[in-house]
Design brief:
single chain, 320 residues, alpha/beta, 3-stranded mixed sheet, 14 strands, 35% helix
Length: 320
């Protein structure tokens, strides 16, 4: 198939682009490089530097489907500048859907987020949980889910939204290079890399197995496989489907730090801090629906996530 990947120069998008090429597809990456990296785009992919809102300049009837990764995704930034998130994530997607309609392209896989659920009262999260996002980032992604559902009903779009929490690890030359870095695993790895003295642990009195917050972590390779399976599934019928991606159990902050110590052989000093406002004790997702319907399950454990992330960090020279 000929595929357009919006945001394909980013961390997750570049991994999926590589996986799609390995599967024999023709890949065109569209990215404005505001947060992505040109050297992350696989050599075999065609690259177009453009905003997602200008996808109409690229899309034509030769394309079979779109995988949509382009989005602003920092929670704090979304609170400080909500208009940016509505313009990019919602209006940009609306323009993309318009371009798809004009080109006659009616298949999409959307990289959504479990932030659409807000602060759930019950975990593991299933797709039937109330979607009550608590920040403009989650709100904008939920708005896109509603947009896809309405477009699917009205115009026969076949769309799948994938909702997940934290992603880690690396695949070959594709790994995390965020600025600023807000994710736990690369920030913990920054200690053995010599770029941080210690890791702040926010809250040690949660009602969890070791007192620290539990979060879901997926290997980016597993996440990419889910996108490929979802792409295949869009060819079977129209409509909008939502799938959560997760482990169903998750890992505590202390378990992540312990994994970094095991993998790197370095000590990782910690500093205990007060809980942050609004931090739930546990955020994990159930993947039973996608396991049943598409046959996907996470295959890589926490040590594999950390070891691949560490290998990427040392390979790229981030390790001091």
């Amino acid at each position: 198939m000929k595929l357009l990947l919006t945001g394909g120069a980013g961390y997750i998008g570049s991994v999926v682009a590589s996986q799609l090429l390995d599967a024999g597809h023709d890949v065109v990456v569209l990215d404005d490089l505001s947060t992505g990296h040109r050297d992350a785009v696989p050599e075999a992919a065609q690259f177009v530097q453009a905003d997602v809102a200008d996808a109409g300049d690229v899309l034509d009837a030769s394309f079979d489907a779109v995988l949509h990764f382009a989005a602003k995704s920092l929670v704090a930034e979304s609170v400080a500048d909500p208009q940016l998130y509505w313009w990019n994530n919602v209006v940009g997607t609306l323009r993309l859907l318009d371009a798809m309609a004009k080109a006659g392209v009616n298949r999409m896989v959307f990289s959504s987020t479990a932030a659409t659920y807000g602060e759930p009262e019950v975990t593991p999260l299933t797709e039937t949980a109330p979607a009550v996002p608590i920040n403009p980032y989650g709100q904008s992604k939920l708005a896109v889910d509603h947009l896809l559902a309405g477009t699917a009903q009205a115009h026969g779009l076949a769309a799948i939204s994938l909702r997940y929490f934290n992603v880690g690890g690396a695949v070959g030359p594709h790994g995390e290079r965020h600025e600023p870095e807000t994710h736990l695993i690369p920030n913990v790895l920054a200690v053995p890399a010599g770029r941080r003295e210690a890791v702040d642990v926010f809250g040690t009195d949660f009602p969890t197995r070791d007192g620290t917050a539990v979060r879901d972590y997926l290997h980016v390779e597993d996440l990419g496989r889910a996108h490929l399976l979802a792409l295949e599934a869009t060819g079977s019928s129209s409509g909008h489907r939502i799938y959560n991606l997760g482990t169903g159990t998750g890992y505590t902050v202390r378990e992540v730090i312990a994994a970094v110590r095991r993998v790197t052989g370095h000590d990782v000093p910690t500093r205990e801090r007060e809980r942050r406002a609004g931090d739930p004790p546990v955020l994990v997702a159930s993947a039973e629906r996608i396991a049943t319907e598409l046959g996907w399950r996470a295959e890589h454990d926490l040590d594999r996530i950390v070891s691949d992330a560490w290998r990427f960090a040392t390979r790229t020279g981030d390790h001091a």
